[in-house]
Amino acid sequence: MNQVIFQSERCKGCGLCVDACPKGCLAIASDRLNAKGYSPAYMKEGERCIGCAFCATMCPDCIITVVKE
């Protein structure tokens, strides 16, 4: 399975990664905030991830790393 690593404390919750994911694997957390007060993005359905790295490409703050297996 591919691994998507978020630096959640740097995430602004803009949702660009969520919109870019062709498989709908990502979401914005509605139940937690990071130190900056934003709801960070997270992987909600990792088993569906195809490792395309569109999420990492779209992230304006470069907080996403995709590790392909």
Give a written overview of the molecule.
The relative contact order is 0.38. The longest helix has 5 residues, at 16-20. This protein has two helices and four strands. The chain has helices spanning 16-20, 54-58, and strands at 3-6, 26-28, 41-43, 64-67. The mean pLDDT is 96. The protein is 14% helix and 20% strand. The chain has 69 residues and is of the alpha+beta class. The protein has one domain (3-67): Alpha-Beta Plaits (2-Layer Sandwich). The strands form two sheets. It has a two-stranded antiparallel sheet. Strands 2-3 form a two-stranded antiparallel ribbon.
* Structural domain tally: 1
* Average pLDDT over all residues: 96
* Main sheet specs: 2 strands, antiparallel
Say what the CATH topology is.
Alpha-Beta Plaits
Q: Helix and strand string, N-terminal first?
A: EHEEHE
Number of helices: 2
Quickly give the structural class: alpha+beta
Q: Report the span from N to C terminus.
A: 6 Å
This entry's quaternary arrangement is single chain
Rg of Cα set: 11 Å
Quick description:
This protein has 69 residues and is α+β, with helices and mostly antiparallel strands. It contains two helices and four strands, in the order E-H-E-E-H-E.
